[in-house]
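Input set for joint prediction.
Command: fold jointly, output tokens.
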Amino acid sequence: MKNKIYSSFDEAVADIQDGATFMSPGFSGVGVPRNLLAALHRQGARNLTGISNNCGTLDEKIDVGTVIESGQVKKMFAAFTSPTHPSQISPFVRMYNDGEIEAETVPQGTLAERIRAAASGIGAFYTPASVGTELAEGKEHREINGRTYVLEYPLHADFAFIRAWRADTFGNLQFRLTQRNFNPIMAMAAKITIVEVEDDIVPVGDLDPDKVHVPGVYVNRLVRIPPDGIFD
Amino acid sequence: MAEEKTKLQRQAMCDRLAMEFQDDWIVNLGVGMPTLCSNYVDPTKDLIFHSENGVIGYGPLAPAGEEDKHLVNAGGQNVIALPGMAIVHHADSFALIRGGMVDVTVMGAYEVAENGDFANWRIPNRKGGGIGGAMDLAACAKQVFIAMEHTTRDGKPRMLKRCALPITAPGVVTLVATDLGLFKVTPQGFELLENAPGWSPEEIQELTEAELVISSDLKEFRFRD
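tokens >
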């Protein structure tokens, strides 16, 4: 069986090229692949496109905002492209207002479904979310059984950075509680899926097949977070 | 001056909306003020709290020392796992929302209009927006309740004939609790159901752009027992 285990985060992100598209999961600070984002920051690829629920928070922790602040990202797709409170000026908000980065605001459920569509070979889908708002302007509308929908397209990526709770050496993944959030759909939607594992990488065969959240066929690279890594 | 009178506290506003939750409802509470709705507990009703990060059936806020770092609600607060709680990924969480499973979502707003439109995601002259899951929830929950202050900080009305800000969803709001009362959205416009103690319908109308319909059964605002 092919060995998917990498010895370091730096090794796992070494081939990310300028201009690549990446997915970064996490919600309210849980399930964020902080170690891989730190490695991407050190690696220095630029001109990236990011797909993430938000564009970084104000706290000191490493998140997608870290690679935005360093100027590595040219465009973000996100459900939050402005602060929830006007006083919260993150690096992204300052750069967006100054025209240093582009962004597309996507309703959160539409964001999730566009990622799932990419993962599942769906060419496009109709959703009722955003109908009648400025986010639906210019999009194809269709009435189906008396309800109006807008057409939305999949979001593909070259790389997904994933934070899992546990993996086996084949890459079967498990998540704990709300750590799951965007992780499974992003792991399935990207061409190359790189996983940081919080608890343990166990021998293949040790995970109950009924309790696998992402099948290992989607996973390309695994790194166990070392004791001095980021666990929150 | 009207401004010197006591207005309703945020907890009282959210209590009042929570009194309308029915047994077995699936409830989604927006970040901020709406989370106060979960502080109102009616032991005769079983409610199921859903949060868009894929948790169905979570419990109250976790006491200090009992937080599980992997279990948070939409606002990032650590909550308690209840027996029967289930976890799904983000796409399935929104499948639950768009599929019409959510009985009510409670949200904050900058503005609500008498036609049921509301705005809560974008301020003009500012790039981008904090839409989060609000558009999906507003378009697909069976009911949308709004909890908000009746006027802006500088005293301008938020209960309008038509929203001036970019809307979150058209024609979806059913019930509004402000610091001046409880309002139902009807085909005739906002119906004042309950007034804050000491506030006459005329005084509330003065601070409201839309024309209020005064309920024939107008009551004083109901507080928790």
